[in-house]
Amino acid sequence: MKKLLSLSVALVISHSANAELQALDDAEMSSQSGAGLGFALQDFIFSTDDASLAVTGIEDGNSNEVGIKWDQFYIMGEGSQNGSVKKPVDIGSYLHPWVVRSVRGSSDWDGDPADFYTGDAPAIGDDVAALQILTDVYTSAAQNTRQYVMDCIFASAGDCGQRAAIRRSGADIGSRFTLDFADGTNHVWNIDMRGVYLDGSGFTLWSRPDDSGQSELLGQLNLSLLAEEFQIDTCGEACTGTGSLLQIDQFYLGLNLGFGDIQPLKFSATSDGNFVLELSKPDPSSRGVDETDSDAMLAFFNEYYANAPKSDIYIGEITVGNRTAGETVINGFRAQYLKATSIDL
Description:
Blueprint: E1 4-13, H1 26-30, E2 36-47, E3 53-55, E4 67-77, E5 89-91, E6 98-104, E7 129-134, H2 145-152, H3 160-166, E8 171-180, E9 186-197, E10 202-209, E11 215-235, E12 244-257, E13 265-269, E14 275-279, H4 294-307, E15 311-315, E16 318-320, E17 323-325, E18 328-333, E19 338-341
Antiparallel strand pairs: 1-2, 2-4, 2-5, 2-6, 3-4, 4-8, 6-7, 7-10, 8-9, 9-11, 10-11, 11-12, 11-13, 12-15, 12-16, 13-14, 14-19, 15-18, 16-17
């Protein structure tokens, strides 16, 4: 079974990569912040080729089992023609690696308010450590995807043509699913994204006691995803990938869920074994605010709205079948509360 072609893998240790390694005792380890493991994949190609993963136990409305096969998954360089041409892609680099690290919260809630929302882990109290997974970060106006989107997609900066000419290539990512029905028919779904960029994204995890004193897993997601083209094809048994159901030219999702201790994502499970993901409401008690003091509450929420990151969605030209619609822009929205729970089928 062919699974992976990778010409080179680069590992980078962030901070003092060339310094002498020194052993640390437990106390010294607990005081460390910012060190971690950085990695980059150069000339990377991933393709499952003829491998297939089957999912069983799913039924239709008549209690007939629906077979689901995951027939394809690929990550390649831009221009792979939906995974058919094996073009390599760089995921991160030596200077801009993906990073896994442990950092201490940056906010001393008894200190200077000017420092509450700065540092490696803003809005998280400095009494806890957090685990962070970060994609590559760029300061260049051409290479920083979020800045490029804000300046050249949401707006029309004068140098957008120059930026586009020197931007690095994105990745091609796609999957194929086959659904087999009880009547002998099947449907194939192809999902393909061309020119994908994920730089500037991050996921942060930490833990605090909940109301009952038990440890609770908390998190924060900051996602910056740009796909130059997003296509979903559906077809029958003789699928050739030409019957486009949905195609989007330029899709951007700048999603921010969670804002440190003030509004964390909460991960838990129910007594019957289902998972629960909850974006809590903004919590004034995290800052020690007296909720009966109207002036203090007003100041808290003014501070929250001024500092909590917002989310953006951009959908360029949409083609469904032979019909075309214009762009859709959702700019500057913020989730106040969200709860998702898995259920038994």
